[in-house]
Amino acid sequence: MSSAQRQGDACVVCHKRWPRPRARVGRFPDDMTALACTDCAEALMPTRMATVVAFPSR
Ligand SMILES: [Zn+2]
After folding, report:
1. Per-residue model confidence (pLDDT) at position 21
2. What is the span of the domain harbouring residue 16?
3. Does residue 58 lie within any of the structural domains?
4. Tens of pLDDT along 1-56?
5. How close is the Cα of 16 to the center of ligand 1, in Å?
6. What is the 3-state secondary structure (H, E, C) of 11-32?
7. What is the b/e burial string over 44-55, where b = at least 16 CB atoms within 10 angstroms of the residue's CB?
8. What CA–CA distance (Å, rounded) separates 15 from 18?
9. What distance in angstroms lies between residue 34's CA and the mean position of ligand 1's atoms?
């Protein structure tokens, strides 16, 4: 796990930095949000993807 992944700059699954990972797929022990690109997030949890994407940004 790279620091970029921990800071949400890279997908936690495929390490891609672009397109920027937008799907929240989990949490690290230090309370950072684990982000994955949409492709990987779909592979991880195909049924919950819609909920993650529709999460309101407040
Ligand atoms: Zn990915």
Report:
1. 93
2. 3-46
3. no
4. 888 998 889 999 999 998 899 999 888 888 888 999 998 998 887 665 555 555 55
5. 6
6. CCCCCCCCCCCCEEEEECCCCC
7. beeeebeebeee
8. 9
9. 11
